[in-house]
Amino acid sequence: MSKILLIEDDRALFEEIKQQLQQWDFHVYGIENWEEVMETFIRVKPELILIDIQLPKYDGFHWCRMIRSQSTVPILFLSSREHPTDHVMSMQLGADDYIQKPFHLDVLVAKVQATLRRVYNYNHEEQRTTLTWQGAIINVENNTVTSNDGKVELTKNEMFILKNLLSKRNHIVSRDELIKELWDDKRFISDNTLTVNVNRLRKQLEVIGLGTFIETKVGQGYMAVDEGV
């Protein structure tokens, strides 16, 4: 049974979400003291985090930064705010998805299940734990890419995208295909979210000299260039 940390200060909504998730055998934990959010995260060791943006003391973006500084656990934002910059900000901080309030609880459960399947099952389906690309070593177990110019750690979304592109090196992978692979059902994800994730992946790879090898094919998708193939 997966543990979910639900960081939500609306008690009525917290209980509603908790009851729904418990019906699917998830263990749901909340925040009792808003001075001890990180302490609760460390103690619970959740497999997934649901977090509101508007919270007491510090907002959800703050806690996302703190969590991402020490963990790649999947994070799904919940928010009633409609400004597109909030969506973009959440993706740039390393969140896995952004769910607009009000939402149907069945949609929330579907997103949680899809994220957990993607994050925790794909490594078991892949026998090889390392890949090589442009002279770099991609470790799919610890989500790192190492080249002669250094080493970067990717989020699970970024690694999943990179693995999908590398599975079809020098061939275009359509945006629809990536969305379907990433979130199981493209009705539950926006096209803009994929763009943000790919841009963040490319920026990470630029640090170690590999950014230019992820090419955008306008109107088609993306391609991982491998001169060794």
From TrEMBL:
One of its GO terms (cellular component) is protein-DNA complex. Keywords: Cytoplasm, DNA-binding, Phosphoprotein, Transcription, Transcription regulation, Two-component regulatory system. It comes from the Bacteria. Pfam families: Response_reg (PF00072), Trans_reg_C (PF00486). InterPro entries: CheY-like_superfamily (IPR011006), OmpR/PhoB-type_DNA-bd (IPR001867), Sig_transdc_resp-reg_C-effctor (IPR016032), Sig_transdc_resp-reg_receiver (IPR001789), WalR-like (IPR039420), WH-like_DNA-bd_sf (IPR036388). Its main location: cytoplasm. The keyword Transcription regulation applies. The modification 4-aspartylphosphate is found at residue 52. Residues 128-226 bind DNA. The keyword RNA-binding does not apply. SMART domains: REC (SM00448), Trans_reg_C (SM00862). PANTHER family: REGULATOR OF RPOS, SENSORY TRANSDUCTION PROTEIN BCER. This is Sensory transduction protein BceR. It comes from Shouchella lehensis G1.
